[in-house]
Amino acid sequence: MLKNANIVGQNVVKFRHRAGWTQDVLAGKMQLLGCYMTRDIIANIETQRSPVTDKRIAVLAEVFGVAVGNLFPPTPSAFKDKPSLESRLMALFRIGRADKAMLELLRRTQAQAEAIVGTDGAEFQSG
Asked: Is 28 buried (19+), middle (13-18) or exposed (0-12) by CB count in 10 A?
């Protein structure tokens, strides 16, 4: 089975424990709202072994009486400590700070770039 297949499992456990419900009770409450659910499915959601559909997330929020967003962590662990797109591009192209400054200059209009670098580009030709 998958590990970390969802990011809401820990909060499902938290809200279920706060309500004082067993997994069977939670499954029953979800079934009353028309959502197919079993204790085994709840267990797999809570242990993050199974993904959770958007419908099940909506029903879980309704059963717990919370907003859908409360089932999600503030910052999903999958996105923590990821470098910015700019940092990743700079690393990919091995662009340093001086090169970054040059790129900023080149982002200006073509006329301004030509005035800064020169119209024939001779400074950058190897020879």
From this structure: middle
Decide: helix, strand or coil at residue 18.
helix
Count: domains in the chain: 2
User: Model confidence over 37-92: pLDDT tens digits?
Assistant: 999 999 999 999 999 999 999 999 999 999 999 999 886 555 556 666 666 666 66
Rounded to whole angstroms, the Cα distance separating 62 from 39 reads 18
By C-alpha distance, which of 85, 112, 86, 23 is closest to 60? 23
Token output for 118? 């020169």
Answer whether residue 26 is part of any domain. yes
In a domain, 122, yes or no: no
